[in-house]
Amino acid sequence: MIRMIYLVYGILVLAAVGAAEFRGWSLDSMSTVNNVPKSVRDNPGSYRSVYSSYHHYTGGK
Amino acid sequence: MSSVTPPSEGPPKAETKPLNCPHCGAAITLRALGQAVVVVCEGCRSILDAQDPQLKILQTFQKAMASDPPLIPLGSRGKIRGTEYEVIGVQRRSIKVEGIRYLWHEYVLFNPYKGFRYLTEFQGHWNDVVVCKDQPIVDARLSIPLEANYLGEIYQHFQTADANSDFVLGEFPWQVRVGDQARLTDYIHPPRVLSREKTGSEITWSIGEYVYGQDLWNTFHLPGSPPEAMGVYENQPSPVGADVKAIWVVCGAFLICLLALMIGFEMQSKKENVFSVRYHLGSGDPTGEASFVTDVFELSGRTSDVQVTTWSDLQNTWIDVNYALINVDTGRAWDFGREISFYSGYDSDGAWSEGNRTDQVTVPSVPSGRYYLRIEPEVEPLHPPIEYTVELQRDVPVYSFYGIGFLALILPMAAVTWRSFSFERSRWSESDHPPSPIFTSSEDDS
């Protein structure tokens, strides 16, 4: 019984890995934005990045 | 055992004979008439000769069983392996190991065509037992052989102990007496147990198979629930044990498939260099609007990932780059920020460094089309001149998936193996061959 469960589970794991690679999934987090105006190409400053106010590391030892 | 073929319709009915106890006069029903050797009076517990028409008294004893009644009442009927049996006798036996007395019950079952079989019960664990038809093979040179071969199956020695009959009730196919002693040796091959019982010079081998109490309750139509099984019994089948090796084989096959998958995707992925551009930020830049856009580039092929690599030769400073990968035609954008920092120096502990001059990020599932990057670098004020390079690659394998897949395949196996290992340790801890402890305390060491 456990062997059968593991068999199905393993096939699902391999299928998930294969799908992830084939579809080009990623583990990195990012935002998607739809309908970015074409004017951004001429005026890049008009686009507000989600990460613009990101806190920056100012460290060093 | 009879060779008579049972009738096809209905269960066989045992031939019975009503008699009276010569000691107390209580009615006695002989259920296994002609085959029972002794019968125990339910009224006064006298052991009577079942083959004597006058029921000669063989032994009397006063021990009451009120505090420990049989779990399956005498006269109960149920089908075992397709044959209906009747419970005709029960005895309570015990062994003493390291000063502790362990009790169990043995039920005598009878079918007029099939003969006798037995059910044993110890702390909620049940076995269906029959006398061996063939003689098991053991190494006769050893006083206690460590293995026994029965019908080609190897059984491991589990325990040898002296058993005592504490209480008997009903009918028995042998000359049972309260106080009877026998030397019991159990060999196991879960779910079976091979038992050698030596009484005087007589040796009897029996083979038992683990059965679940609830199945017996259903079979004998008993009210309530069977007593809960406590601990791990000697021949109790492991919930995973028999499958562990087979599952590891399956796991190995999956790992090979995973490796093949990795090699396959590694070979077929394009890893296409889309562009690589080096940018320069002079000291104090940017003074105005920091963001800019790249030229439009083409991402071709099926929907796949895009890897963006940023690397810089910066020293003791940081650069944060906000990216937006924007589709020219659909207006869809993937927005992400990356930071590179690298610091190094010397202190009382010597040279140190932290951070990384290179960063990689994978943009998921990007359809083919025309794209450009909006890049917005951010740096600390009064920074030194910084050069940084941005590279884009299309359709790059993500090896982290294989690591996750590997763990996903291995971790359940580790859990199953540990469960099996723990179960077997519990089983053998009650044997004559207990496993050595995994952890020893410092007191033990001293």
What's the helix and strand layout?
The complex is a heterodimer of chains A (61) and B (446).
Chain A: H1 2-23, E1 31-33
Chain B: E1 17-20, E2 27-30, E3 38-40, E4 47-49, E5 57-59, E6 77-80, E7 83-97, E8 100-111, E9 115-122, E10 125-131, E11 137-138, E12 147-150, E13 153-172, E14 181-189, E15 192-199, E16 202-211, H1 213-219, H2 241-268, E17 272-281, E18 292-293, E19 297-299, E20 304-312, E21 317-327, E22 333-347, E23 350-356, E24 358-366, E25 369-379, E26 386-394, H3 400-429, H4 442-445
Antiparallel strand pairs in B: 1-2, 3-4, 3-13, 4-5, 6-7, 7-8, 7-13, 8-9, 9-10, 10-16, 11-12, 12-13, 13-14, 14-15, 15-16, 17-26, 18-25, 19-25, 20-24, 20-26, 21-22, 21-25, 22-23
Helix pairs in contact in B: 2-3
Low-confidence stretches of chain A: none
Rg calc of chain A: 21 Å
Q: How many strands appear in the DSSP assignment of chain B?
A: 26
Q: Which structural class do you get from the secondary structure elements of chain A? A: mainly alpha
Query: What is the multimeric organization of the chains shown?
Result: heterodimer
Spatial arrangement of strands, main beta sheet of chain B: 7-8-9-10-16-15-14-13
Mean pLDDT of chain A: 84
Net shape of chain A: rod-shaped
H/E topology pattern of chain B: EEEEEEEEEEEEEEEEHHEEEEEEEEEEHH
Tell me the number of helical segments of chain B per DSSP (H or I, 4 or more residues long): 4
Largest sheet of chain A: none
Order of helices and strands of chain A: HE
Total DSSP helices of chain A: 1
First-last Cα distance of chain A: 56 Å
Uncertain ranges of chain B = 1-11
Helix content of chain A: 25-40%
Tell me the helix content of chain B: 10-25%
Which descriptor suits the 3D outline of chain B? elongated
